[in-house]
Amino acid sequence: MTNQIKKRPRVPVHGVLLLDKPVGFSSNDALIKAKRFLNALKAGHTGTLDPFATGLLPLCFGEATKFSQDLLEADKTYTTVVHLGVTTTTGDTEGEVLAQTPVDTTVSQIEAVLKQFTGPIKQVPPMYSALKRDGKPLYEYARAGVTLERESRDVVIHALDLLSYDAPFLTLKVTCSKGTYVRVLGEDIGAALGCGAHLKELRRIQVGHLVLEKSITLASLEELPDEERLALLDPVDALLSSFPVVQLNDTLATRFLHGQRLALGKEEGVTLPAEIGRVRVYRESDGQLLGSAQLQEFQILAPERLINTQ
Questions:
Q1: Is residue 1 over pLDDT 50?
Q2: How many CB atoms lie within 10 A of CB 79?
Q3: How many alpha carbons fall within 13 Å on the CB side of residue 155?
Q4: Are 50 and 92 contacting, i.e. CB atoms less than 8 angstroms apart?
Q5: What is the mean pLDDT of residues 78-98?
Q6: I need a labelling partner for 274 at 20 to 30 A (CA). Which of 114, 150, 216, 234 fits?
Q7: Is 237 tagged catalytic?
Q8: Distances (CA, A) of 110 to 56, 163, 202
Q9: What pLDDT score was predicted for residue 19?
Q10: Of 50, 70, 92, 188, which is the active-site residue?
């Protein structure tokens, strides 16, 4: 008789895990492993990293998944090694080589080109991307040898710093807005230098206010006992720490959790931020996070995403 291994039932786990994604894993593969290690019922990641890329991949569990969109919208910072003189089909090391060109580029030429790509720029999304056309990812068309027209999109390169240059390898630090393809940036820099380029390495070191230094690898996570794995989770409101705080008494908290808009200008004892915009909302009596909201004109608090406090 064959012994069947009984699977542990998944349990509700709430919080944020900062993972240092290894090379060769898709973001979803890394999420599945971390979810299994934590025996979590519900989980999601906050924006993909290509398999060849490494670095910070914030993973959201349970109630934290309600706020993952905030990190998708956040600025991101990377370090990258650009291989000048070689272009590939994918713009990175996973593609086939298209052309090789001698590299005769000086640091002053590089610095001049980097200035051209700092600030608001336009980018054409790559064919090897998860963007969809008619319900199918672009990379599926690309693998079939089909190239589609893509409209350029506006992105912002907040900072583009030259860390080192050891020809043909150019090491950069990039801080950019959402929707930026660093692969395309590397290709465009190579084209502007007249020699072409692709990314040899890409490592994400910051997402919004979350930093790589506080992350853990899958290998290290696997070695820990269950209770130590759970202790690594940041609380749900770690994703909201840049938002001002609003605290509500028990009566207002109950109304808020029922999705009611609150006219707080008439309420005594409620301290509100000076500026309208997004806020994080807590119950004053026990410090329980209730969710996020929009503080609107005339001191109206409009619930946005609510926490299940049961």
A1: no
A2: 18
A3: 26
A4: yes
A5: 95
A6: 234
A7: no
A8: 28, 12, 19
A9: 97
A10: 50
C-alpha distances (whole Å) from 285 to each of 184, 194, 252, 262, 278 are: 50, 64, 11, 18, 22
The pair of three-digit structure tokens given for residue 256, joined into one six-digit string: 């808020």
Taking CA atoms, 250 is separated from 66, 300, 309, in Å, by 23, 18, 13
Q: Collapse the DSSP code of 124 into the 3-class scheme (helix H, G, I; strand E, B; otherwise coil) and give the result.
A: coil
- Side chain identity, residue 82: V
Burial 116-126 (b: 16+ CB within 10 A, else e): ebeeebebebb
Judge contact between 117 and 185, C-beta under 8 A.
yes
Q: How far is CA 118 from CA 153, 154, 157, 181, in A?
A: 15, 13, 5, 14
Residue that the structure tokens 């370090």 belong to? 79
Per-residue pLDDT of 91-121, as tens digits, reads 999 999 999 999 999 999 999 999 999 999 9
Q: Are 97 and 87 in contact (CB under 8 A)?
A: yes
- Helix, strand, coil percent values for the chain (each to nearest 5): 25, 35, 35
pLDDT tens, residue by residue, 139-160: 788 787 778 888 889 999 999 9
DSSP bridge partners of 305: 292
Look up the pTM and report it: 0.89
Which residue type, as a one-letter code, is found at position 169? Answer: F
